[in-house]
Each structure stands twice: as C-alpha cells, then as structure tokens.
Amino acid sequence: MRIELNSKRKKNHYLIINKKLKMILFMVAILMAFMLGCGNSDQNPDRNSDITGGTEPTQGAVLDTDPVLTPEAAQEPQPEPVPVETPTPTPTPPLVKDSSLNLTASTLVWGGTSTSEAKQIALTFDSGWEYDKTLQLLDVLDQYQVKATFFLRGGWVEDHSELAREIASRGHLIENHSQAHAHMNAMTEDEVSADIMESTNIMKDTIGYTPTMFRFPYGEYNNRLLNVLGEHGYQYAIMWTIDSHDWAETMNGVNVTEQYIIDRVLNKASDNGIVLMHVGGSQTANALPEIITGLRDAGYELVRMDELITE
Predict the structure, then answer these.
(1) Other beta carbons within 10 Å of 263
(2) pTM beyond 0.85
(3) Count of CB atoms within 10 A of residue 59's CB?
(4) Which residues form the domain of 284?
(5) How large is the greatest C-alpha to C-alpha distance in the chain, in angstroms?
(6) Total structural domains in the chain?
C-alpha cells in the first residue's frame, strides 16, 4: 500500500511540472512573436503605409512639399476683413446759407410789448386761399365790437379785393402774409424780394395802405429773411403765442372741434399774447363768440397788433 501511494504522488508531481513547463514555453513563444513583429514593422515601413500616409506618389500626382508647421504656425488663418460699402446718401437740395442780422433787419415779435396796466391780447387771422367765412368772421367781430389784425396773402387780396376793402373799412388792421404762401426759407433772396414787392404793391393798390408787418408762411424764418424784410420797409415779423389749431381737422389724434379751439385759446391766454387763427378755419367763426367773452371775463382787452407793439 505504501509503495502504491508513493508512486501516485510521484506521478502527480510530474504532471504539475509538465503543465508549468508548457505554460512557460507558451509565454516564451508569445514574447518572441511579439518581438519579431515589432522588428518587422521597423524594417518594412510600406506595410504600415495606410497608417502613416507615407506612400510613394503615383504618376501625375502632386507631391505635397509644404513644410511641417509648428503648432503656433499651424493655426487656422483669419479671413481678411471685407470692407463694407458705405451707402451713398440721398442728395438733398442745398440750403441757402444764413447770414447775420443787419441793423435794418425786421424785428421778430413773439409777443406784444405793450406796457398798458390792463391785460391785452390780439386776435389775428391769416388768409391762404379760403374766403367764404370772411363775412361771418367780420360780423362776429362787429357784434362784439372787437378790432383784429388780418395777415392777408397778396394773391388773396388780388382775387378777393372787395373782401379786402371790407375788412379795412370795418376798422381792422391789414398786414402782409406773402404773395404765394411758399416756404420762403428755401427761396433765394431775389425770389423773396420779388414776392414781398408784389404782395406789397397789390395791397397798396387795393386798400391804399402800405403794410409794415409781415407774417411768414408756416412760421418759417431766418436772419436772411429778416434782412430782406427790413430792406422793404417792414419793421416787424409777427409770430404768435397761441396757435389755435383751427387750420387742422385733428391734432395728435384729437378732433379739432369748436370747443377744442375755445379751450385752447382760453387756457393758453397771457398778457401781450397773440392768437393765431385763420380766415378759412371751418370752426373759427363759430368758436369766436365764446373766445371773445371768455377773454373779456378773464380781464383781457382785445386790441390790434399796432396797439400791442409799443416803441
């Protein structure tokens, strides 16, 4: 029994040693194969040409001869800035250069200079082309015994000479509102001078009176215009302190009604004030009675422009 057991132990011992030898030989074989493979790769670069990209150029191919760039030099180049074309501005008409005021220039008047103890205010009426409300205006002024100032366009006086004479005969002051009601600040001095001369002569011939006050169409003026006015004997260029808006149908989304005109004039009234209204205003004649009574109730005396301006 003891002999059989020893023989079995020896046999198992040999089997273990044999397995270990086989394992060692297998690992040595793998290591040698790996080393041989690395050596072949170094000796035969063409085998790995698909990895390195180092193939020989074929006929007709262009050989890349660019130098190897450093990381800094290999940065993607920035595109050149494309110049933006400056749009050509739309040409505008050349402006007539303004000038300084001459000693004889017309005086610009924004309000009266009266030193009366009583508060005074002037109602003024401009004419453009409308005329059919003129007699109604005159009748209301007569009814309330008010004398006003009418700035009439020369062409209006020429076309409606009888109405112009009627205005003068009722004791109202007539002054000049240009001939054609143009944008005079865009006109040359010769054009402005011709306009003033023509309108002045029409008024002299029609009503026998030479006007000395002028109201610019649209209220547009500059020093050059004031100089030309002065050359033609006009002492004053009259502006206003209250625009009644009677020339408009709506203003800032609000309908210009009879009550709108009344409220605007009465709320903005001031001593030595000048109220701008129009002969052709559709609501002006209707609003006038309450304007007159409202101003008088507030202590105002209604006067002509030649009474509101004192030397």
Answers:
(1) 15
(2) no
(3) 4
(4) 107-308
(5) 169
(6) 1
